[in-house]
Design goal:
Elements (H helix, E strand, L loop, with lengths): L2 H4 L1 H20 L8 E14 L7 E5 L7 E7 L4 E6 L2 E9 L3 E7 L5 E7 L10 E12 L2 E14 L1
Antiparallel strand pairs: 1-2, 1-3, 1-9, 3-4, 4-5, 5-6, 6-7, 7-8, 8-9
Length: about 160
């Protein structure tokens, strides 16, 4: 064991800091669930891999890469919502946690998209604006495409 960790005062201080952090997160008051969210993304990374190719070609872009997404009909009790994008609307699973709202879509082909909206200590929370990350993973005939988009979501009431 590292000698620095062997002193009781250091262990108590570290454990106290962890407990304070966890306690603050547990006590974080979740904002009210809005009628809808509009999510826009300003930058992204994307990776592709062709069939029979183990490596990925990866690029980062300072642009959105996708049209805005609207999440509506948010029902935390049923864990349901609807996602509306450029390809139309689809039902998604909605998880309302104490520090995040998460939306998960699994298509009939097994492709997955996840949007995570961050609620804890957000700089513009009083305006109903929260940072968000949207991730997509898909495979078509052995080719893989994955992307992660970075931006924000605004509550619409």
């Amino acid at each position: 064991m590292n000698k620095a960790w062997s002193t009781p005062i250091v262990r108590v201080a570290v454990l106290g800091a962890i407990a304070a952090f966890v306690g603050r997160a547990a006590m974080a008051e979740q904002p009210p669930i809005p009628n809808a969210l509009r999510c826009e993304f300003s930058a992204y990374t994307a990776g592709t891999s062709e069939p029979h190719q183990i490596a990925f070609d990866v690029a980062a872009k300072d642009e959105g890469g996708i049209d805005p997404l609207i999440y509506s009909a948010l029902d935390p009790d049923k864990r349901t919502a609807q996602m509306v994008g450029n390809a139309g609307a689809s039902d998604v699973t909605f998880f309302a946690m104490s520090t995040t709202w998460s939306f998960v879509e699994v298509t009939d082909f097994g492709n997955v998209t996840v949007t995570q909206v961050f609620l804890w200590d957000e700089p513009e929370a009083e305006l109903g604006v929260y940072r968000a990350v949207h991730s997509r993973q898909s495979s078509i005939m052995g080719a893989i495409a994955a992307s992660q988009h970075y931006g924000h979501c605004k509550a619409l009431n």
